[in-house]
């Protein structure tokens, strides 16, 4: 049986990653990646907008250990914001701090974020800091809190499988948070391992954040959670302008459009670029049944 841990192992295997990158976005990755270029990403976002869907784009990449590479990644984020403005599309920007030099120098990463947020504010746009593995949680929240002293157009994500998720949600009251289950292989010392416990804690932090009066981006493909959130919002007088649903590009597209038709904001997380491997493996880890995408991608070549 192909397991979640198997795909998480592949996500960290540099040898396989290098081989896969040379092959290009095959094995189903092309179904969930909005192209490799910025222009392809904007074309994809425009098509999503035409269906009533909002978007957030992410130029794939992470774990940069070189200052020049981190500076180049920050410049690309700024170019992406400029492309969004020029295209006139309904789209935010998502990014990872390790791509911007978090593992090189914290101050470098912070300054890169300031440059990106200044450009986003100029355009009236919003930037989401993706949450990474547990070792980067505290540095990410530290940088977020520092940035929020200067900018209100920045938020992050909180992972529901972590024991501390509820506490972090309370600390970030008033912040636009993407609420996710979590996609990294964290140990039992810091994260729930049982699927039922993860589900319950995830639903709990969603309700907690919504009751705090904070904007909630509920990122899930689970129709049960979506139904529960709709019901909870209605019962507690929480308007549709206080939350949105988010799903990944290429997953449950019909449900995405149905949610949008019901009058809810539906935002599609839309990754693009060449460094697709780790992202794709973590998506398979979340839903190993998506291995069928791999065979379709292979057979189409």
From TrEMBL:
Transmembrane segments: none annotated. One of its GO terms (biological process) is L-proline catabolic process to L-glutamate. It comes from the Bacteria. Pathway: Amino-acid degradation; L-proline degradation into L-glutamate; L-glutamate from L-proline: step 1/2. Gene3D superfamilies: 3.20.20.220. Its cofactor is FAD. Keywords: FAD, Flavoprotein, Nucleotide-binding, Oxidoreductase, Proline metabolism. The keyword Iron does not apply. Binds 1 FAD per subunit. It catalyses: L-proline + a quinone = (S)-1-pyrroline-5-carboxylate + a quinol + H(+). Substrate binds at residues 96, 282-283. One of its GO terms (molecular function) is proline dehydrogenase activity. FAD binds at residues 131, 159, 181-183, 220-221. It is an enzyme of class 1 (oxidoreductase). Pfam families: Pro_dh. Its EC number is 1.5.5.2. Residues 41-288 form the Proline dehydrogenase domain. PANTHER family: PROLINE DEHYDROGENASE 1, MITOCHONDRIAL, PROLINE OXIDASE. This is proline dehydrogenase. It comes from Alkalicoccus saliphilus.
